[in-house]
Amino acid sequence: MSAPAADLTGWIPAPFTGGGFTHDVYRKGEGPGVVLIPEIPGIHPGVLGLGDHLVDNGFTVAIPSLFGEPGRPVTMGYVLPTLARVCVTREFQAFATNRQRPVTRFLRALARDLNASTPGKGVGVIGQCFTGGFALAAAVDEAVLAPVLSQPSVPLPLTPKQRRDAGLSDVELGVIADRAANEGLCAIGLRFSEDKMAPGERFGTLKDRLGDAFEVIEIDSSPANAHGFTPMAHSVLTEEVRDLDGHPAYEARKRVVEFLTERLMAG
């Protein structure tokens, strides 16, 4: 059984400008808003499969095309040059620690715009892989009520300092911690236990600052794990999902939908 995948059918693209940047945003669905930030190499069929799943569960989903070619399948010949390009782009600052990344200004503006045009209490933001930490940084804006960090990999974890870094500036993390303490903001983080690209030290930093407001879902990918995940397992919500009850990535995706429903839907 393969991971859920979809194409661009029904997704409506339109340019959006915010925070000094302009990107096409693909939108679909009705209901409370969720900004779904794609993983490297872009809006691939697995990201679209996740987007369709969110739409089917009653959300309006907006996917910004920050890099790559929308709809193009994942291959190593596509991933590597895309990663090389984004790593040196000022918008993302892939190696910097304790840094506010320029792209987060765009994402906050997009979240505010989506919130203004959708029902519900606020919006969710899901970041994945290279963009995982951007979801939490977006929650500096009060429109964001449900940030989800799936295998956050920036800053790229080459040194101990980078592995511990939360992926946003201390000032931004302070705002998030204040919102968690005083406004009830909560976040979810997901990773595979052996994933070196999304180090456990990063979640440790976030847990220390946010406490019970940061829910950690860690899936066992150690040798001889019960579900056969390899030590290279990485994409919790896309490539590793199988539509089987009890499958850890499937259950993690269910928990994300439940979290978004709890946080965003009135009632």
Write structural notes for this entry.
- The structure is a single chain.
- The mean pLDDT is 96.
- It contains eight helices and eight strands; from the N terminus they run E-E-E-H-E-H-H-E-H-E-H-H-E-H-E-H.
- The chain is globular, with a radius of gyration of 17 Å.
- It has helices at 45-56, 76-87, 103-116, 132-138, 160-164, 170-183, 200-210, 248-264; strands at 12-18, 21-28, 33-36, 60-64, 123-128, 144-150, 187-192, 214-219.
- A hairpin with a 2-residue loop joins strand 1 and strand 2 (21-28).
- It has a single domain, classed as Rossmann fold (3-Layer(aba) Sandwich), CATH 3.40.50.1820.
- The protein is of the alpha/beta class and 267 residues long.
- Keywords: Hydrolase.
Show the helix and strand layout.
Blueprint: E1 12-18, E2 21-28, E3 33-36, H1 45-56, E4 60-64, H2 76-87, H3 103-116, E5 123-128, H4 132-138, E6 144-150, H5 160-164, H6 170-183, E7 187-192, H7 200-210, E8 214-219, H8 248-264
Helix pairs in contact: 3-4
Give structural attributes:
alpha/beta, eight-stranded mixed sheet, 8 helices
- Written as H for each helix and E for each strand, in order along the chain, the element string is EEEHEHHEHEHHEHEH
CATH topology: Rossmann fold
Give the overall shape: globular
Quickly name the level 1 CATH class: Alpha Beta
List the strand order in the largest sheet.
1-2-4-3-5-6-7-8
Low-confidence stretches: none
Number of domains: 1
The overall pLDDT, averaged over residues, is: 96
Pfam family, one: DLH
Domain Dienelactone hydrolase: 30-260
Protein name: Dienelactone hydrolase family protein
Organism: [Mycobacterium] crassicus
